[in-house]
């Protein structure tokens, strides 16, 4: 069954490096917390706030070796009180998990967006791990 995993993160600044770093951290956490692999992922949709215009979040995912996952970036509509420098993601994944078992991931400042869904916290299962190594292991390495 296809399920949606929601997540969000705030980039440190509007640099390409900060956007890619935040995106990788978010996707790595979303996949790890839901025990998914890259082969389970149907597609990933991203939105960014208007103040993030120096890089596409999808480019960070390609750096993880997810070359066969359909990705789409979009600009979020301008909303006056929106969280600045916010990257939101919707990962569609094939899983046997029920909707209640899906773990949505809102990192750092983005936890305020959906505190009812924010399950990852500092000191959790990902702390102390090399996030890139975790993501590549889950993805089966670089698939070229």
From TrEMBL:
InterPro entries: Chorismate_mutase_AroH, RutC-like_sf. The keyword Transferase does not apply. Pfam families: CM_1. Coiled coil: none annotated. GO terms for biological process: amino acid biosynthetic process; aromatic amino acid family biosynthetic process; chorismate metabolic process. Its EC number is 5.4.99.5. GO terms for molecular function: chorismate mutase activity. It catalyses: chorismate = prephenate. Keywords: Amino-acid biosynthesis, Aromatic amino acid biosynthesis, Isomerase. Signal peptide: none annotated. It is an enzyme of class 5 (isomerase). The keyword Repeat does not apply. It comes from the Bacteria. Prephenate binds at residues 6, 88, 106. This is chorismate mutase. It comes from Thermaerobacter subterraneus DSM 13965.
